[in-house]
């Protein structure tokens, strides 16, 4: 019974993960989450192909230890994903913010990709309802990008009716931490005093973004954007890796 259900399930899940990772690699800029999804797919496929061999190993004393470690790892991933998803989906917007800080996400050449487009759509909806709000776009130029993320975002907003005078551009940052450090300098110079900020990013990224905003000295509200369904798994894996990396003391 276990073999009849387990093997097809492993092969199916592994194949879907691998195909999704390959599709994202071909159409998006490569990132850690895509690699992790692809590796996970390969592991599931190998498990399904050598199902009986793995079952024999799992019955040995060292195999039981590996199984326990794998279960603990899966529980950690599920728990972290749930925590990030719940936190990231909760909006704390007040409607009185002076500035929306829209965080950059990968572009391809000059093309705005779906995750970033979701952030911009959310910012556009808010900006249309609140004509006095400014929009700060933040993100430098990375591999595979012909222009900075901030410039691509600015062009997108202007093409959708936002005047150039309402857009502030920060185009030097290479991490979420730098997004807020550099943007705060621009906002301090612009306002010269107190101002209120809302962070706009996808739900999977919101927890780390809010933390980095606070560390930069910005007490920001949160305006989450939806997560594209086919990018959910790699993006949450990437965020978990980024949190682990940050807990180790590195810049994220």
Structure report:
This protein is of the alpha/beta class. It folds into two domains: 2-88, no CATH class; 99-247, 3-Layer(aba) Sandwich (Rossmann fold). It contains nine helices and seven strands. The strands form two sheets. A five-stranded parallel sheet has the order 5-4-1-6-7, with helices on both faces. Helix 1 (2-27) packs antiparallel against helix 2 (32-49) and helix 7 (176-191) crosses helix 8. The longest helix has 28 residues, at 61-88. It is elongated, with a radius of gyration of 21 Å.
Write a compact overview of the structure shown.
With 252 residues, the chain is of the alpha/beta class.
User: What's the total helix number?
Assistant: 9
Largest sheet: 5 strands, parallel
- Classified by CATH, the class of the largest domain is Alpha Beta
For the record, give the distance between the C-alpha atoms at the N and C termini, rounded to a whole number. Answer: 45 Å
Order of strands across the widest beta sheet? 5-4-1-6-7
CATH architecture of the largest domain: 3-Layer(aba) Sandwich
Query: How much is the radius of gyration in Å?
Result: 21 Å
Helix and strand composition category = alpha/beta
What is the residue-mean pLDDT, rounded to a whole number? 89
> What is the beta-strand fraction?
5-15%
What is the CATH H-level superfamily of the largest domain?
A: HUPs
Shape: elongated
How helix-rich are the residues, as a percent range? 55-70%
- CATH topology type of the largest domain: Rossmann fold
Q: What is the string of helix and strand elements?
A: HHHHEEEHEHEHEHEH
